[in-house]
User: Which sequence fits this backbone?
């Protein structure tokens, strides 16, 4: 089972609990391919009644049909504002700005009734590692204020960023929860890059990915790897993909680790198409499993 909870994450969680007292609204960034698995249940418990907006990033890698369904789910089932985002192109950031500006206006009106001057809206951005928090901050600010990386744990400290005359934003490190007792959720996070590559078995993760894709549409694998047919077991399918991609060792044996790396990276880069690994219809079950972690 995949386990990863570095010391800096435990510290970040303690700090975040105190910082929540300072902000007016929380922006939680999740991965559109795994909207519920990529939400930290520990953080949601801490947020509690705080005003919140959910941003589903990497919309370009997820199935558009399910993107719309997930937005409806968050807006109707959780009574939260929700926005789809492509942090590479900036698509969706204007909608998020509109929500933040409206929240600012509401707070400014309340302060005016009390005879007080308006102040910047204080927002906090949270999420698990590698979902695109830093990229979103740079989009909101219109400049490269924060460091962006394609591996978990790039943002280590907390920093306030003035993104406009109305909005001040607190960036926080990505925080995972202490343990993954649900295997499917753990592998979804590994496959989408939330967990460092060094702490999980690429080959086992590839088998999981193949099974996830088979449950969605087996044509995805047939087309992507020019396969004539699919074997019954992911173990054998990975071998066929390895042969097609020339992942061979001495004696003609398939280099399974190399083949696993190819299919996982193809999924992460969108080369297998737009794939969503979780459906809103499964939300109730997924939510219980996530809270049980």
Assistant:
């Amino acid at each position: 089972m995949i386990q990863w909870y570095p010391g800096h994450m435990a510290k970040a969680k303690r700090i975040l609990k105190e910082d929540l007292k300072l902000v007016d609204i929380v922006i939680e960034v999740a991965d559109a391919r795994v909207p519920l698995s990529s939400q930290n249940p520990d953080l949601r418990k801490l947020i509690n009644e705080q005003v919140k907006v959910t941003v589903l990033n990497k919309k370009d890698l997820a199935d558009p049909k399910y993107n719309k369904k997930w937005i409806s789910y968050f807006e109707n089932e959780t009574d939260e504002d929700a926005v789809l985002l492509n942090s590479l192109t900036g698509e969706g950031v204007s909608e998020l700005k509109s929500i933040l500006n409206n929240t600012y206006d509401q707070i400014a009106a309340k302060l005016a009734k009390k005879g007080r001057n308006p102040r910047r809206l204080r927002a906090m951005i949270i999420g698990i590692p590698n979902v695109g928090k830093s990229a979103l901050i740079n989009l909101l600010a219109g400049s490269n204020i924060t460091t962006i990386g394609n591996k978990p744990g790039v943002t280590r400290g907390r920093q306030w960023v003035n993104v406009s005359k109305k909005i001040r934003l607190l960036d926080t490190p990505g925080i995972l929860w202490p343990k993954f007792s649900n295997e499917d959720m753990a592998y979804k996070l590994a496959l989408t890059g939330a967990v460092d590559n060094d702490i999980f078995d690429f080959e086992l993760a590839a088998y999981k990915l193949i099974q996830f894709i088979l449950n969605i549409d087996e044509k995805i694998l047939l087309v992507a790897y020019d396969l004539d047919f699919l074997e019954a077991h992911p173990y054998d399918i990975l071998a066929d993909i390895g042969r097609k991609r020339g992942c061979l060792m001495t004696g003609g044996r398939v280099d399974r680790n190399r083949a696993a790396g190819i299919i996982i990276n193809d999924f992460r880069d969108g080369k297998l198409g737009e794939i969503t690994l979780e459906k809103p219809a499964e939300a109730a079950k997924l939510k219980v499993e996530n809270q049980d972690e």
